[in-house]
Amino acid sequence: MNPFASSAALDMQGQFSTQDTHMYSVILPTYNERKNLPIIVWLLAKMFADNQLAWEIIVVDDASPDGTQEIARQLATTYGEDKIILKPRAGKLGLGTAYIHGLNFVRGDFVIIMDADFSHHPKFIPQFIQQQKAHNFDIVTGTRYRSSAAPSLANAKPGGVHGWDLKRKLVSRGANFLAATVLNPGVSDLTGSFRLYKRSVLQHIISVTQSKGYVFQMEMMVRAKALGYTVGEVPITFVDRLYGESKLGADEIVSYGKGVWGLFVGV
Q: What are phi and psi of 200, to 5 degrees?
């Protein structure tokens, strides 16, 4: 039985009652994610299969010394080389350029960007798709800081953060408050990195985005709004990485502050 014939599946499809014929490409930047990669790939594969969606995962690994690339190759053998596509780079070159690199290889109509460390759960992706289809959004972004979706989505639950200490929560809240106050982009979670893009929209925004580090996500959203692209929001729960250490440090925080100022005077 076609699951899209059920009322729940029709609701997942937003205003459309036909089966989703799009392909969804996930870009996963990795660095020392040997333990996390099999888990996130399994969850993604299951989610796509449960919703009968065409998919592929582009793994952009920055020469991880822990064997992440070998795990990616094993996963390609398990799921198929058309599903798990390893596109490594010579070194640790930054998050922004990882997405640029991965975008060169995607085949999908829509591109999902997310972290490989299990902080972003694939269970929210059907809600992203539902929101996109219902309103034909150019971008749907996950938000930790809304209690409801924008526009409203019946099955959305309040967003939140789990596993962070008070200091890190305050830093994240402060960073978003600073950017929202200075730049006024109309999006509640500028520093988030769990998003669904129309492929052509992502290609355009990336072509004009200048930042390469952790400011990249913020600038992408500011540029998108300035260019007139439409953005929907879906609340997500963010869970601190399952294995390994956070890559956010003092240098990234300083870079973020400089990035906000640069966008303020330049956009």
A: -65, -35
